[in-house]
From TrEMBL, chain A:
A Pfam family of this chain: Hydantoinase_A
UniProt GO molecular function: 5-oxoprolinase (ATP-hydrolyzing) activity
Transmembrane segments: none
GO annotation, biological process: glutathione metabolic process
Record domain Acetophenone carboxylase-like C-terminal: where: 526-676
Xref: InterPro entries: ACX-like_C, Hydant_A_N, Hydantoinase_A, Oxoprolinase-like
Domain Hydantoinase/oxoprolinase N-terminal stretches: 6-178
A Gene Ontology cellular-component term: cytosol
Top-level taxonomic group: Bacteria
Protein name: N-methylhydantoinase A
PANTHER family on file: 5-OXOPROLINASE RELATED (PTHR11365), HYPOTHETICAL 5-OXOPROLINASE (EUROFUNG)-RELATED (PTHR11365:SF23)
TrEMBL record, chain B:
GO terms (BP aspect): glutathione metabolic process
Alphabetical list of PANTHER family matching this protein: 5-OXOPROLINASE RELATED (PTHR11365), HYPOTHETICAL 5-OXOPROLINASE (EUROFUNG)-RELATED (PTHR11365:SF23)
GO cellular component: cytosol
Top-rank lineage group of the source organism: Bacteria
Lineage, broadest ranks: Bacteria, Pseudomonadati, Pseudomonadota, Alphaproteobacteria, Rhodobacterales
A molecular function (GO) term: 5-oxoprolinase (ATP-hydrolyzing) activity
Organism: Lutimaribacter saemankumensis
Hydantoinase B/oxoprolinase domain sequence ranges: 5-529
InterPro entries registered for this protein in UniProt: Hydantoinase_B (IPR003692), Oxoprolinase-like (IPR045079)
Protein known as: N-methylhydantoinase B
């Protein structure tokens, strides 16, 4: 019986592979360069490094940035739109916003140009009444015209189709009869939720991604099968759950934040297992610092995001807050003499000055190099022989030290202080905005540079501790193996609670449950349990911001017991009171949307299998080098992190190195290796 | 003054900005009315204890408030100076626009912040309430000839004394609004934001000490001033003028000039509005604080990296002539202030374009088009659909202007059509870009929009519009052309009509099945149209943004060869 599970996360620079043998509990990792433009090369190469016989593999789960990149780089397919008469410009008009508050600069190019957005006679009103029946001849002509112009996919976007999909469904059926491929996206199928711009945008972006993403996933699946793979191939969604590959080909827009979501799922699992259910993750990349909050083991979901200005995707996704403070963020002094970090970034190419690839303006990484925190002789990533410390020092003198009258080390410390302060600000904001005190949270860095900054963040935010996972560089790949299977459904209801049609609500819910279970049934994966999570978006009449109201629903053998008006009213009062601390006298309660998540809980693996076997602190010591902390250079011990045994305790200042990560233990802190191989960094008790 | 090191200063700058941002976030989440919750028509900040000058302001509030809030704080400072009885825990509330700027819908709360028994600074919160009494629901009354016809007027009074809320004040407020529930929700949100500000200031001062934070605030003001002076020094010396016009004041159909002379000498600038029309009868007057704040908004659009503090304005002298419609005395009506300040921004851009064409963009569409459609349903229940509509942004030195953007004084988004159709008995026949509406240029303006709204209710409805740019089009800069003007039409049994006052009208009766149509201006063009890439013209024709006739008339025939 095949028992190997493989998680593959394809990032911008590296493709990470995490292989778990369920029978032995053994885990192996591989890291290979990401191949472009076709990521499947690196994908298969990475698996091949660890697994020779794919027939022994039960599951391959993939976290992919193929969708994200296609959106950011505008490299989706040529697509067309068929829409209601009078509304062809909705996609281009957005919600009447602008890219930046100040300056009035910046244009917007919609992903579908105006001449490929065709109108047809049809109109449904907000109450679902059909005012004008759809003209199917016009629909067929429009579809043919789009095909003649070379469109590879089409989106059908009709007004108020969330309230009554009849016109849209007829049009979709007519288009599917003549469209030569499966790339036909309908707004009422993708997102039956009120708000035309958000629904149209999500649907159009789905169509835009469909040829590209489904082509890529099919290539991968065929290549895996060609190598003898006979297991199940699944894809991570932005909501942190996985879906079958055919669902992903149908709904590629749900992969928009696939990669980062898997990382947060793994972080939550690792932290909870290690005894810290409240954790804030920080992923520091070249251009940004991504923060996500997990409370009580649960990551937060946000209902929508903008991939770029005007590119709104409305599907539940793991909430990740991004600020422009990454390793490549540039430090500069403005005309008023104030030190700033970012938002401009040298990225990974040309990258920091120390890379010697042409950038001359100092970055956060350059400050770490100058202060000895990064080993210039063994750069991470293996692309470079040696880092140019002198060039980094000169850049810091020229652009920061000189203008502010600081020495090189003072200026480098200043850059880190301001960068750390911005990261600390992001951590404070994500926790405080949700009503949590950050002091009770642990911080978990992952990605290349995060573990260099943990001490400063513990200090600045007052966090209890940091937990560095054993393999911070492959967290997302590990998340692929851990993530549950999950399908989200939404339906706009738009009714006052006292006039709510309980039967109609239950019918929608029953449909969601049935479709969700069917997808779980079709999976070959075994599930430990199945859960259905039901929420209503509700508000008082007149209020626009809705509150997510969790609803306890009894489901017996797949059959829903209809929730009553009284139950819904009580659930709303409880959720509203918890959010705002008071209820509104005589307020009229309204149900806006029904949201259902059907979740298949996948078996979790035992993290102790990742722990080091044996080892010895002294043997793990590689030597020492001078590292600057605060106002002085310290002779700092360097350890091979992976060779440290369970229970090892290292007092700062120290540096723990592993191939893709440097863990900095500041003076006054200590690092302990726990039973799972995580490094826990805490204050030394006075 | 304590000297402060540059690192602590950079850190404190971020921390204090975050306090104001958190106050914004607190109100947006708690507010009841969508004008605050969705359109973010609100703002929070920290203000100087003696002068009321802006020290730090949140980044997510409405742009116009960035300059205007310090006047609200000054009004409170003036009031307490007379009696000398300011105490920790006091909270002041008022909406008087002649003291605090903007219009009467904006409710301002000002709270002194004490440290060790000493006044350290003021915290303030402003938010646009949904209704504050007056003759017209929602308070956009195009026929108002004084403040009393616009709303009830509340001067600065103590809502709380030494931490004790005075319920009598709340009772008066709630009796004077058509939407007391909404107002109570917004008031609670504003009080919550101020509470949060006090807690965060306590934490910050515990951590860094009052002297260090005070030194940082002083230093930040100084650096903002230095930054502004450096920007001005980079610009050429000289004097440039620009004039534009408001259509009318809604009472008399006569144009009202808005004129600016912009003068730069070294590191100083003067904006002199001499030559602007005198105070008028209708509600396009503005109060002096609004005018000064508007100059700040224009400056910050030209130099977007400037911080939001008073230091920026020290090298700039804003001269507002007495007796002009830019410094109207109480009780002049000011409800339509948005139109007037948009025109002020337009003339500042047009004047600056002559000094430094690479620093500015062409005029945006220049009117908020406050349109309300109201009626009674079959069951007698009244309904009012009220919204602002979008238009094109100006062409820029880098490229074409943005299609269908929001006004430069605002960051508000438009409600979704489906939300409006679900809430009110209307149907949008069109929600579209408006062809041939962009100003021509090397970089053309963005397109305006066409909205056509049909009444579905048996009882019909009445429409009210408060708009501008019906007689004077948004201008281009650096040789760019003007955009199309605002056109409002309404359907009657005998066909389509236009209002006699162009874009302002009350009480238009509509029967079921009749519609109104709003065709909004695009943005002005940037640079001479003759230098536009013919391929870009051909693309605009292919996309239907530009008719072939207009294309050839404006840009010449070169595009036709490319279109072949």
């Amino acid at each position: 019986m095949s028992s190997t599970m493989i998680g593959v996360d394809v990032g911008g620079t590296f493709t990470d592979v995490f292989v778990l043998d369920e029978a032995t509990g053994q885990a192996r990792v591989a890291k290979v360069p990401t191949t472009r433009p076709d990521q499947s090369g690196g994908f298969l190469d990475g698996i091949g490094q660890q697994v020779s016989d794919l027939s022994s593999v039960a599951v391959v789960v993939h976290g992919t940035t193929a969708g994200t990149n296609a959106l950011l780089e505008r490299k989706g397919a040529k697509i067309g739109v068929i829409t209601t008469e009078g509304l062809r410009d909705v996609l281009e008009m957005r919600r009447r916003d602008r890219p930046r508050t100040w300056g009035l600069r910046g244009d917007f190019l919609p992903i579908v140009p105006r001449d490929l957005r065709l109108e047809v006679p049809e109109r449904t009103l907000a109450d679902g009444t059909i005012r004008t029946a759809v003209d199917l001849d016009a629909v067929r002509n429009a579809a043919q015209a789009l095909l003649d112009k070379g469109c590879l996919a089409v989106a059908i976007l009709f007004a108020n189709s969330y309230a009554n999909p009849e016109n849209e469904a007829k049009a979709v059926a007519a288009v599917r009869e003549i469209w030569p491929n499966p790339h036909v996206s309908a707004s009422s199928e993708i997102l039956p939720e009120i708000r035309e711009y958000e629904r149209f945008s999500t649907t159009a972006l789905n169509a835009y991604l469909q040829p590209e993403v489904s082509g890529y996933l099919n290539r991968l699946e065929n290549a895996l099968k060609g190598d003898g793979f006979d297991g199940e191939f699944m894809i991570v969604q932005s909501n942190g759950g996985v879906m079958a590959v055919d669902t992903a080909c149908r709904l590629p827009v749900r992969t928009a934040l696939s990669g980062p979501a898997a990382g947060v799922i793994a972080a939550g699992y690792i932290a909870q297992t290690a005894g810290f259910p409240d954790v804030i993750t920080g992923d520091m990349g070249g251009t940004s610092f991504d923060v996500s909050l997990i409370a009580g083991g649960q990551s937060m979901l946000s209902p929508q995001t903008s991939i770029d200005f005007g590119m709104v995707v409305r599907t539940p996704m793991i909430e990740i807050t991004t600020i422009g403070a990454g390793g490549g963020s540039i430090a500069w002094v403005d005309k008023g003499g104030l030190l700033n970090i970012g938002p401009e970034s040298a990225g990974s190419n040309p990258g920091p000055v120390a890379y010697g690839l042409g950038n001359t303006r100092p970055t956060v990484t350059d400050a770490n190099v100058v202060l000895g925190r990064i080993d210039p002789d063994n750069p991470i990533g293996g692309k470079l022989e040696r880092l140019d410390v002198e060039a980094a020092s000169r850049a810091i003198d020229d652009h920061v030290g000189g203008p502010l009258g600081l020495s090189t080390t003072e200026a480098a410390e200043a850059i880190l202080t301001v960068a750390n302060s911005r990261m600390a600000g992001a951590i404070r904001l994500v926790s405080i905005e949700r009503g949590y005190d950050p002091k009770r949270f642990a911080f978990m860095p992952f990605g290349g540079g995060g573990a260099l900054h943990t001490g400063a963040l513990i200090d600045d935010v007052g966090l209890a501790r940091a937990i560095v996972p054993r393999y911070p560089g492959v967290t997302s790949a590990m998340g692929c193996v851990i993530a549950d299977m999950r399908q989200d459904f939404v339906q706009t209801i738009n009714a006052m609670v006292d006039q709510l049609d309980e039967g109609a609500l239950a019918a929608f819910l029953q449909d969601h449950v049935k479709r969700g279970h069917a997808l779980l049934d079709a999976a070959r994966t075994k599930f430990d349990a199945r859960d259905v999570v039901v929420e209503l978006d509700m508000a008082y009449l007149g209020q626009t911001h809705t509150v997510a109201v969790p609803l306890e629903v009894t489901i017996t053998d797949g059959t829903v017991t209809p929730p009553t008006r009284a139950q819904i009213a009580a659930a709303f009062d409880a959720a509203y009171d918890a959010t705002y601390g008071r209820l509104l006298k005589n307020g009229v309660r309204r149900v806006m949307n029904l949201r259902t998540a059907v979740i298949g809980r996948r078996p979790k693996f035992d993290l102790t299998t990742l722990a080091p076997q044996g080892g010895d602190v002294e043997a793990a010591r590689k030597g020492s080098r001078r590292v600057h902390f605060g106002k002085a250079w310290h002779d700092t011990a360097i350890y091979d992190r992976l060779a440290l045994p369970v229970g090892a305790e290292i007092a700062g200042p120290a540096i723990l190195e592993q191939p893709d990560t440097t863990v900095l233990v500041d003076p006054g802190l200590k690092a302990t290796v726990d039973q799972y191989g995580n490094t826990i960094i805490e204050r030394v008790e006075a | 003054m304590t000297d402060i090191d540059p690192i602590t200063l950079a850190v404190l700058a971020g921390r204090m900005e975050q306090i104001a941002d958190e106050m914004d976030a607190t109100l947006f989440r708690a507010a009841f009315n969508p004008i605050i919750a969705e359109a973010h028509d609100a703002s929070h900040g920290l203000y100087h204890a003696a002068s009321g000058d802006t020290l730090v302001q949140g980044k997510s509030g409405l742009p116009i408030f960035v300059g205007v809030m310090s006047f609200a704080v000054k009004a409170v400072i003036n009031k307490v100076a007379e009696a000398g009885d300011l105490a920790d825990g006091d909270i002041f509330i008022f909406n008087d626009a002649h003291l605090g700027g903007t219009h009467l819908s904006d409710m301002r709360l000002v709270r002194p912040y004490f440290r060790d028994g000493q006044l350290f600074c003021y915290l303030a919160s402003v938010g646009h309430w949904h209704d504050v009494g007056g003759a017209v629901p929602g308070n956009y009354n195009p026929a108002a000839t004084d403040a009393f016809a616009e709303a009830f007027v509340l001067p600065p009074v103590r809502l709380a004394r030494k931490g004790e809320i005075n319920q009598d004040i709340i009772d008066i407020l709630m009796r004077n609004t058509r939407l007391p529930q909404s107002a109570q929700g917004d008031l609670n949100g504003q009080l919550g934001a101020l509470d949060l500000g006090v807690r965060r200031m306590d934490e910050l001062l515990d951590e860094y000490g009052a002297d260090t934070v005070r030194a940082a605030l002083d230093a930040l003001g100084g650096r903002a001033e230095q930054l502004m002076r450096a920007e001005l020094t980079d610009l050429p010396d000289g004097r440039w003028e620009a004039t534009d016009y408001l259509d009318n004041d809604g009472i008399t159909d006569a144009p009202l000039p808005i004129k600016v002379a912009l003068e730069i000498r070294g590191d100083r600038m003067v904006l002199d509005f001499e030559g602007t029309a005198p105070r008028c009868a209708g509600p396009v007057n503005i109060a002096y604080p609004t005018a000064v704040a508007t100059a700040y908004v224009a400056i910050k659009h030209i130099f977007p990296a400037l911080p939001a503090n008073a230091g920026v304005m020290r090298p700039i002298d804003v001269k507002i002539p007495e007796g002009s419609l830019l410094s109207a005395e109480f009780p002049a009506p000011v409800g339509g202030y948005t139109e007037t300040i948009l025109r002020m921004i337009d003339v500042i851009f047009s004047a600056m374009a002559q000094a430094a064409p690479d620093r500015v963009v062409a005029n945006a569409y220049g009117t908020i088009n406050a349109l309300s459609i109201a009626g009674k349903r079959k069951n007698g229940q009244p309904w009012v659909m009220f919204s602002f509509y979008g238009g094109g942004h100006g062409g820029t030195p880098e490229g074409d202007g943005l299609n269908h953007g929001n006004a430069p004084i605002s960051t508000a988004t438009i409600p979704p059509m489906e939300i409006l159709e679900a809430a009110y008995p209307v149907m949008f026949r069109q929600w579209a870009l408006r062809p041939d509406s962009a100003g021509a240029g090397a970089h053309r303006g963005g397109l305006g929009a066409t909205y056509e709204i049909e009444v579905l209710e048996d009882n019909g409805a009445e429409a009210f519009l408060f708009g501008e740019r019906g007689r004077f089009a948004p201008q281009g800069v650096a040789g760019g052309g003007a955009s199309a003007m605002n056109v409002f039409s309404y359907e009657q049994a005998d066909g389509w009509h236009h209002p006699p006052m162009a874009s302002k009208m009350r009480g238009i009766k509509l029967a079921q099945g009749q519609a109104v149509r709003l065709e909004t201006p695009g943005g002005g063009g940037y640079g001479a149209p003759g230098t536009r890439d013919p391929a870009a013209v051909a693309r605009d024709v292919a996309l239907g943004f530009l008719s072939p006739e207009k294309a050839t008339e404006t840009y010449g025939p070169a595009w036709q060869e490319i279109a072949q």
